[in-house]
Amino acid sequence: MTAFALRRRWWPALALVVLAMVPYSAVPLPGLLDGPIGSPGSLQLLALCLVFGALATGYDLLLGRTGLLSFGHALYFAAGTYATDLLLTHAGLGFWAAAGVGLLAGVVLSALLGSVSLRVSGIGFAMVTLAFAQAGSILVQRDPGGVTGGEEGLAATGLPSWAVGIQHTANLYWIALAYLVLTLAAVQWAVRSPIGRVWEGIKENERRVEVLGLRPYGFKLVAFVLAGTLAALGGIVYLLLTGGATPQATSSDFTLSLLVMVVLGGSGTRWGPLVGGVLYTWAQHRLAGLAGSGTIAGLPTALRVPLSQPLFLLGVLFVIVVYALPGGVAGLPARLRRAQA
What we know:
- By secondary structure, the chain is mainly α.
- The chain is 71% helix and 1% strand.
- It is built from 15 helices and two strands.
- The chain has helices at 3-20, 40-66, 74-89, 95-117, 123-142, 169-192, 194-204, 206-211, 216-242, 252-265, 272-291, 294-297, 301-307, 310-324, 332-340, and strands at residues 154-155, 244-245.
- Strands 1-2 form a two-stranded antiparallel ribbon.
- α2 packs across α11, α3 packs across α9 and α6 runs antiparallel to α9 (216-242).
- The protein is globular.
- The mean pLDDT is 86.
């Protein structure tokens, strides 16, 4: 086995070891992080980056692996977050019991709604998933019975002591890292399995899969439920990181953000959605600080108004990346190798 093959085989394990040691580091990264890598603020941001990288990886099971454009993926993320929060706050359950029920809620909801949504395909499928997500968002914001907190969200009570306080930020970071590893392992196992090969066939030409005697509906439902389950688990981890549930997690904008992450990183690739999720989350937080900085405030009005909007900056960055790297960031190494050749 060549040295290049060995590096290619073992670098994910080495990267995992490095990421696991991040809370013990005091190395500053000026411009990238506000403080040392191991400081509570930096760890919080890095944990969010890992969570959204994992969420984008799970969402790519639908978009990049099976060819299903869903606009309702936020609903299953919100199911894990709100179900766990409601059971903690109103039912008084312990965290692990509430998290188990929250994960089960994501599985059941994705199975039920997926079985209905997948009866149609193409734009019809996208619209049905969007309709379900909008219904869930409206339900949360209307605050029936005063249980969801409405537009203000619902602060979680009864969280375990090891997840509360800045002194335990490292624990939350490790949980986010564990969620990322679990998601990557589940996605890679599924993609390399016989079911994953059928997903690839469905994406390329669903009619040919039917001609071979296979029913695409069942295989697509498996992808839908697996992606929804991973999203619900991500919602539980997000609840620990933020200490509560917010209605923004139920909106269609949340799913659109996941879509942007996948396209930014490279849809249908092994590491692209992860890279896109990390970059998008980091840029969203950093550009929000830049938009409110004194540098932007001192610019002329014609420049200050658009540059003071973080979404405008994110949109410009996204357009530049899409035009410069049509296959996403994941295709950059191959383009560099071709340029060298």
